[in-house]
Amino acid sequence: MSNTKSIAIGAAMLCSVFAASTANAATTLESVKEKGHVQCGVTSGLPGFSQPDDKGNWTGIDVDTCRAVAAAIFGDAKAVEFTPLTAKERFTALQSGEIDILSRNTTWTLTRDASLGLNFAGVNYYDGQGFLINKGIGVNDATELDGATVCIQSGTTTELNLSDYFRSKGMEYKPIVFDTSEQTVQGFAAGRCDVLTSDRSQLAALKSKLADPSSAKILPNTISKEPLGPVVRQGDDQWFNIVKWVLFAQINAEELGVSSANADDMLKSDNPSIARLLGSDGDMGEKLGLSADFGYNAIKMVGNYAEMYNRNVGPDTPLGLDRGVNALWTDGGVLYAPPVR
């Protein structure tokens, strides 16, 4: 037998073994049910998005996104464990199966979507990159930052956006690169840089961590689009659909006026859209491999999108962020979910 023929037969056998093992492999939903919880990758600490308190209790929009998935699957929003990850670690942790969902203020881009073996399951916060400056440097616009020293977190889209922006404006800058957002804000606070750049929501969070937040300000410029949302591995459409439609259920709930406070009363609604959303009519949950009340559980236990937004990053929180583009499409924003039908 020639070496070429041997190699061809060996390759065919390996393909057959791989195909068989893939076919027999447990789905993500099966694996999650077996261990009894969703494993969620988050930041090591970013107020408003994923932050542990001194007792290890996590809060934030990204945390709530994972809790809603747990509620939809188990009827228990607490059936989730959190894995803190740096920006450099996050994709490897998801690719390797260490986590089931990455919900870590992660920007949806073509490269990440098409070359990392990952799927973005929606957007839970529309953002854009901006600049936080020390008021002492006397700058009021990003076009005045020529020659600035800029603190930046490695492994993020902000590095590339920063380079593009300064090049397009014919300006120079000196990057000071850190591994984590905590290190980045510490570098800024210590005076190692004039400017800190990141997503505007993250700048608000990091500004709130300063000893004197009034000493800094966020410039009005937004230099990029940063759609942030949960990420899953490619190759498991059922899991992709579950994560996606739990988020869509929360957005639809706000639009339909369904909240954690009135979800029980809304079970009696004669509005067909509400009945399908909460599972009192139709087989929407079955289509996802979940119980009929998956939407009800997510909304009752975690809340609709407005509740999630307002308690974590809204005007009455330390971040104080208005809804802006994150308002529903009916209120002048871009938040829009496909119908549950």
What can you tell me about this protein's structure?
There is one protein chain. This protein is α/β, with parallel strands linked by helices. The chain has 2 domains: 28-126 and 228-315, 3-Layer(aba) Sandwich (D-Maltodextrin-Binding Protein, domain 2); 129-224, D-Maltodextrin-Binding Protein, domain 2, CATH 3.40.190.10. The protein is 40% helix and 16% strand. The protein has helices spanning 3-24, 28-35, 61-74, 90-95, 110-115, 157-168, 181-189, 200-208, 237-256, 263-266, 272-278, 284-288, 294-301, 305-312, and strands spanning 38-42, 51-52, 58-59, 80-84, 101-102, 118-120, 125-127, 129-134, 148-153, 173-178, 195-199, 216-218, 226-228, 231-233. The strands form 5 sheets. A 5-stranded mixed sheet has the order 10-9-11-8-12, with helices on both faces.
Features:
341 residues; D-Maltodextrin-Binding Protein, domain 2; 14 helices; globular; disordered N terminus
Précis, in short:
By secondary structure, this protein is of the alpha/beta class. It contains 14 helices and 14 strands. It folds into 2 domains: 28-126 and 228-315, 3-Layer(aba) Sandwich (D-Maltodextrin-Binding Protein, domain 2); 129-224, D-Maltodextrin-Binding Protein, domain 2 (3-Layer(aba) Sandwich), CATH 3.40.190.10.
